[in-house]
Amino acid sequence: MATSKTREAIKDDLKTLKEDVVTLKDDVKIGAREEAANLKAKAAEAKAAAQVKAEELKGKAEEYYATARERGREYYDEAQDRFDDAQRYVTERVQERPLQSTAIALGVGVVIGLLLAGRRN
Question: How far apart are CA 103 and CA 71, in angstroms?
């Protein structure tokens, strides 16, 4: 009889163990689903935060670009004015002394020609 009781006790223990395994399996599935939902929500939050940050950075970049473009335009206008002034100055000096200007231009041309001819040899 003791063996029959033992068998019954073992069967009961195995049945309980099987039920516990099924319950544990279900609990693990539920926990995994909850964790997946939590991770999905966190991923959505991170994506939204990244999009907000990207928009902020885009706005800053556009501001920097506009500022740089404005400054570049100012520098260009200033350089253009200086170039125009220099051109007017040279034109006036050439008109005041055409012979001297022609001689200087000829001398510069000869020097450049000699420099270039020296490189070929």
Answer: 41
Q: Say if residue 40's pLDDT is above 70.
A: yes
Residue count of the chain: 121
Report how far apart, in Å, the C-alpha atoms of 2 and of each of 6, 12, 15, 62, 83 are. Answer: 6, 15, 20, 87, 116
97 Rama class: left (phi>0) / alpha (psi -120 to 50) / beta = beta
Q: What is the distance between the alpha carbons of residues 72 and 121, in angstroms, rounded to a whole number?
A: 44
Q: Is the pTM of this model over 0.85?
A: no
Kindly list the distances between the CA atom of residue 17 and the CA atoms of 5, 8, 30, 100, in Å, as whole numbers in the listed order.
Answer: 18, 14, 20, 115
